[in-house]
Amino acid sequence: MTEMVMPNDTNPMGNLMGGNLLRWMDIASGICAGKHCEAHVVTASVDHVSFQKPIRVGDVVSLEASVTRAFNTSVEIFVEVFASDIKGGNARRCNHAYYTFVGLDEEGHPVPVPPVLPLTEIEQQRYDSAPRRREVRLILGGRMKPEDAKEIKAYFFER
Question: Is 136 helix (H, G, I), strand (E, B) or coil?
Fold first, then answer.
């Protein structure tokens, strides 16, 4: 997905407002999730987001989203944000995040989602680390007790 930063997208300093970037990231990752699930999807969570580099008015923003892992009814999406000037100069990676979406049927009930088959080394790394990220999300969301986090324990204590 590609967008151009216009004046109404920016703060008084001429930088893209974070909320606008999050919206674009949600849209790009939602499209990716919907295509993978072949279903309607809703955003369930967004992992830690830090705004690493400013994006200025007039910059062209490119968002790239990919599925990292599917669970029962949810799918994790990795989205990266790149910016450059209109001529392609000053290209830089500005941000990334993991979004989680739940697949829904026509009545709005969760549905099973298709599995993910990682093909590249980086896809395999993201696939393998997804269960740990999922446990962190569940713990922070109050849906899992830290002592039940098997993947996180294994990462720290069984190495």
Answer: helix
For residue range 12-24, list pLDDT tens digits in order.
Answer: 999 999 999 999 9
Question: How do residues 66-81 score in pLDDT, each as one tens digit?
Answer: 999 999 999 999 999 9
Q: In the chain, what's the furthest Cα-to-Cα distance?
A: 52
Give the chain's domains with CATH numbers: 2-114 (3.10.129.10), 117-159 (no CATH)
pTM over 0.90: yes
SS3 label, residue 144: coil
What is residue 26's three-state secondary structure? helix
What distances in angstroms separate CA 91 from CA 83, 115, 122, one per listed residue? 6, 34, 22
Q: Tokens 């996180």 sit at which residue? A: 152
In the structure encoding, which two tokens stand for residue 11, read together?
């703060």
Q: Which residues of 105-137 are buried (b: 16+ CB within 10 A; e: fewer)?
A: eeeeeebebeebebeeeebeebbeebbbbbbbb
Q: 7-39: buried (b, 16+ CB within 10 Å) or exposed (e) per residue?
A: eebbeeeebbeeebbbebbbebbbebbbebbeb
